[in-house]
Structures
1.
Amino acid sequence: MAFFILSAVLFAFCVYIGFLVGNTLGGRVVSTKDYWKLNALAVLVAVLLAFIVAQLPLLYSVVIGLLAGAIVGLKMGFGESVGIWRAHDKMFNVNRGQRDVAERGVGEERRRRRKSGEAGPDLISVSGDAAKRDNEARKAR
């Protein structure tokens, strides 16, 4: 019984650690191609870790937890529903913003701006006389 309890605790802890690592790396990725490369890297690292811990059954949950957390963290850090995640998000009706980004195709541009530190596009433009009237109204109060 203690084996199963320790295995569950290790699994939960490693899912959290894997999520943090994946979220950090996913936030740095710009293109979908790089996103899939990081997913492949996560699987490769999990396979290598599985070979290392092959003789220690308690640590199997560590490998699976790290992989699961990293894959979900990559998706959340990437900020767009791609691949099988698109079907998952649509079926469970979650991550509406990420689905919208994928449908409009503006995710790569937004991630490139975020990575370079550029400001986003202006959504409301206030110029000329309207801006001047706003400033005068504030001063008058």
2.
Amino acid sequence: MAFFSSSGRRGQKKGSKPVSRPPAKPGGKPLDEDRVRLEREMADLTRQAEEAERMAAEKMRDLEELPKKIAERQRKQQEMIHMRAVLTATDDVFGRPRDKRHAPLRSSGPKRMTRPEQRAARMQFLMLCVVLGVILILLWKSIR
């Protein structure tokens, strides 16, 4: 059984020579392998750097477009709020006045007429008055 040295080196038996690597040749393979590995790592790092720059540029474009997107979103929300307010309009004093062209009249009965309906009813009444007047004139002339 072989005893190991107490020097703390592994793999060396007592009395044996230390193991050394063979001397590197002038165009040796370990240097070429290291250079190829380093070149590969450099190419990978440059690719990652280009990707990071591309992502940074994309984020900068998004950041520049962000105020426009926020303004558009707020405009759409204001439109929706306005539409909801118009559809559920009440007679509150603090709100904007309602569009009175299609608003029902307050003094009307339980079935409220809008202004266009009121205008149509007025025209119909005038036409009936004209027809009644023509009929009365014809009857008056026929009596003599």
3.
Amino acid sequence: MRRLPVFVVLLAMLMLAAPVTAIADDGIHADTTVLAAEADEPLGPNPAERTAEDNPARELAGYEDQDLPFTWGAAWIMAFAGLVGLVLLGGLYQLLVRGPAQKSNS
């Protein structure tokens, strides 16, 4: 029962502390903040389409079509390894735990 009042007090302290720190941050940095949108210069060229033939980043970033993604093959390998692991763990459980327990009971 004592945990609830402590939790309520901590929650109230956090709720009171958040606006105070927000006000303090606004007072300190309000005159030094400069937004990039306020600049008169353009921010840069428009990006080229990902699939455009003249986009030099198409080959550098690996946007070309791949025959078979690595993750597809890795998923099958991991599924097979997981299935083999489950079968091995089940067999070891049968041999080391369940079998001796059944022999000792009979």
4.
Amino acid sequence: MSSALDRLKNLTAQISSYELERKNNLKTLEELYQKLGIVAKVAQFNDLFHYKAINLSGISLSDEDLGSIKEGKYTQIIGIVYDKAAKVKNKNSSLAYYGRSEKLSFELKSDIIAFVLGWRFEKSFRTLEHYHNLMVQLKNLPREDQC
């Protein structure tokens, strides 16, 4: 019985730490949104989450070489929207442009990476909540034999 209680305690602690991390992430993300000049393209912070994805050019985000510069490339943060009614479904928008990747300061590069990863972290929570809400709706749909 104690192992079940231990698992529950561990799970509760993990969920609490995720929520704390999420709260801290949102605060940092909003600060970076201002600092990196993204506010010039997206006037309201919460509108950032209307994007289906946010990508980065010129700097690697892969596990193997996180933060490595792609020589000769330009760094920009790119927002991607999906429009199922449009002929071209995905539309890319430059949210911020920073010039040649190899000329970025270490601090700016770190802030850019932190913004993109932080946005993805928060977006994953919002996606999880969206699908959780859909599952609740599904459970509450009237069954055919009840109609």
